[in-house]
Amino acid sequence: MRFVLALVILLAALVPISSHAAAEPTGARVLLVVSGNGRDEGRSRPGFEYDEFAQSWVVLRDNGVTVEVASPQGGPVEVDAFEPEKPYNARALADPAAQAALQATLTTGAVDPARYAGVFVLGGGGAMFDLYRDPGLKRVLEEVHAAGGVIGAVCHGSVVLADLRDAAGRPLVAGRRITGFTNAEERLFGARWSKTYPVLLEDALKAAGASFAEGAPMLPHVVSEARVVTGQNPFSTSLAVEAMLRAMGREPAARTAWQDEASLLLVQRRLQGNHAAVRAELAAAPAAFDLLLIGMWGYHRAVQAGEDRTMLEEAADIMALVADRVAEPRLTLALARAEIRLARNAQARARLEELLARAPNLAPARQLLAGLAE
After folding, report:
1. Dist CA 339 CA 182 (whole Å)
2. Selected catalytic residue, list 49, 52, 78, 155
3. Are residues 142 and 242 in the same domain?
4. Are the beta carbons of 87 and 20 closer than 8 angstroms?
5. Which of 123, 224, 257, 355 could bond 229 through an S-S bridge, CB–CB 3.0 to 4.6 Å?
6. Count of domains in the chain?
7. 156 is catalytic
8. Is 186 part of the annotated catalytic residue set?
9. Could you give the angle at which helices 50-62 and 96-103 cross, rounded to 10 degrees?
10. CA-CA distance, 346 to 340, in Å (whole number)?
11. How far apart are CA 326 and CA 248, in angstroms?
12. Which of 145, 156, 221, 300 is catalytic?
């Protein structure tokens, strides 16, 4: 499931902001695991997230790690639809080794766990079908962890942890803080496939005894505990890989956050109460952020809010950060609706009047404004 496809509005093109050259391998080897379930770019059967693969590949290679790729059936795997112009995707697409690895994935059942210091399982809806309870992957993860290695997962990939056992036969995640794609995120963005999943990820981990650690939907959130590293959603990928490197005893190389990652980290800081600092940061370097992504996060927060006034106030404030900076009428309308629900009628009226001055035939804006006059 790709958040950006659920946003409705096309996001502005991202600019490359990471300039690391791949470091030479220094001995550590990590296995990336992807779903082989995908068909027809995710339209008939979901596969894996290329954003997550590309970020994982780039960050690991920039830290001198040898990377191999596996899937349950081995061989070529089909990715869900993605945006090739994103800087991390562009880097992975231009790397012959990355492309060769995806065309000839190893088979999980034939992988030698002793070769790897770590295993990182990627998400996408396909993980819920062929990675969930894959016996080969289960063996690899259990043996790598038992031997002192690090295991990790991001987004829907975390579902594989629910079936793991320790040396005593107990659920490996029991009592551990674990995160992954939440039920709230499924409700907001997973409607297409989640009804067909054998289980919801959050439910499966809780049933296995995990202490499920949930962050706000689609904001970066990573948990690292006892050589098990998990990221909640696609925007947590790079940070989760870096946490995995730390758990392997390697300090990650410094990097500039990807534009989408930086944008949602800014939202996160705003939710933590850093209002003035966030406004100043945005004003000082607006090009460092995807303004529309920030606004659409606020839009979806308003959808999630329901009757929760605090959440609705958060949503309105996030949308207001960027509404005057992006020429997107639907975002302005969403903000005006939120302001009306919050009884901020004067603000909503001014916003709608300004919008109608630019787009006089926009019927929804006229209807909202007429409602305020009644």
Report:
1. 28
2. 155
3. yes
4. no
5. 224
6. 2
7. yes
8. yes
9. 130
10. 9
11. 42
12. 156
What is the CATH classification number for the domain harbouring 176?
3.40.50.880
Q: Quick one: 8 and 114 in the same domain? A: yes
Identify the active-site residue in 78, 186, 314, 339: 186
Burial group, residue 24, by CB count within 10 angstroms (0-12, 13-18, 19+): exposed
Residue 43: the pLDDT is: 73
At 6, the pLDDT band (50, 70, 90 cuts) reads: very low
Query: What are the structure tokens assigned to 347, written together?
Result: 């603000």
Told to judge if 20 belongs to the known catalytic residues of this protein, a careful annotator would answer no
Residue 270 belongs to a domain: yes
Express each pLDDT in 28-60 by its tens digit.
Answer: 999 999 999 998 766 789 999 999 999 999 999
* Same-domain pairing of 214 and 278: no
**Domain match, 210 and 267 both:** no
Residue 254 lies in a domain: no
**Residue range 227-239, pLDDT digits in tens:** 999 999 999 999 9
Question: Which domain does 227 fall in, by range?
Answer: 3-247
Backbone angles phi, psi at 39, to 5 degrees: -145, 140
Residues 29 and 112 in one domain: yes
pTM summary value: 0.91
Residue 272 corresponds to which tokens in the numbers above? 């933590």
Tokens 């929760």 correspond to what residue? 308
- Report the C-alpha gap between 331 and 337 in whole angstroms: 10
CB 48 within 8 A of CB 35: yes
Which residue has better confidence, 70 or 327?
A: 70
